[in-house]
UniProtKB/TrEMBL annotation:
<feature type="domain" description="TFIIS-type">
    <location>
        <begin position="36"/>
        <end position="76"/>
    </location>
</feature>
<dbReference type="GO" id="GO:0003676">
    <property type="term" value="F:nucleic acid binding"/>
</dbReference>
<keyword id="KW-0479">Metal-binding</keyword>
<dbReference type="GO" id="GO:0008270">
    <property type="term" value="F:zinc ion binding"/>
</dbReference>
<keyword id="KW-0862">Zinc</keyword>
<dbReference type="GO" id="GO:0003899">
    <property type="term" value="F:DNA-directed RNA polymerase activity"/>
</dbReference>
<dbReference type="InterPro" id="IPR001222">
    <property type="entry name" value="Znf_TFIIS"/>
</dbReference>
<feature type="binding site">
    <location>
        <position position="40"/>
    </location>
    <ligand>
        <name>Zn(2+)</name>
    </ligand>
</feature>
<feature type="binding site">
    <location>
        <position position="43"/>
    </location>
    <ligand>
        <name>Zn(2+)</name>
    </ligand>
</feature>
<dbReference type="InterPro" id="IPR012164">
    <property type="entry name" value="Rpa12/Rpb9/Rpc10/TFS"/>
</dbReference>
<protein>
    <recommendedName>
        <fullName>TFIIS-type domain-containing protein</fullName>
    </recommendedName>
</protein>
<feature type="binding site">
    <location>
        <position position="68"/>
    </location>
    <ligand>
        <name>Zn(2+)</name>
    </ligand>
</feature>
<keyword id="KW-0863">Zinc-finger</keyword>
<dbReference type="Pfam" id="PF01096">
    <property type="entry name" value="Zn_ribbon_TFIIS"/>
</dbReference>
<feature type="binding site">
    <location>
        <position position="71"/>
    </location>
    <ligand>
        <name>Zn(2+)</name>
    </ligand>
</feature>
<dbReference type="GO" id="GO:0016887">
    <property type="term" value="F:ATP hydrolysis activity"/>
</dbReference>
<dbReference type="GO" id="GO:0006351">
    <property type="term" value="P:DNA-templated transcription"/>
</dbReference>
């Protein structure tokens, strides 16, 4: 991914704020997506994509996200 030309604007209070590290990924393989045979709660389709993402503190388990390939509905599951 080419990141040249990206502009970041900072305010004068930037040093007082806690900053988070952001990792940019450029392909679905890096997101660890996989097809799962669980029913979509909206349309009942069994073909969904699932992936995990750390949304809370690092000592908590990751959140599991799903997206239906038929209707596009996205939902999450806390483990």
């Amino acid at each position: 991914m080419d990141v040249q030309g990206i502009t970041v604007h900072c305010d004068s209070n930037m040093e007082k704020k806690k900053l988070k590290t952001v990792e940019i990924v450029s392909s679905n393989e890096e997101l660890d997506e996989e097809y799962e045979s669980i029913p979509c709660p909206k349309c009942g389709e069994l073909k969904v994509i699932g992936w995990s993402q750390q949304t809370r503190s690092s000592d908590e388990p990751p959140t599991r996200f799903y997206k239906c390939m038929k209707c596009g509905y996205t939902w999450r599951e806390y483990t």
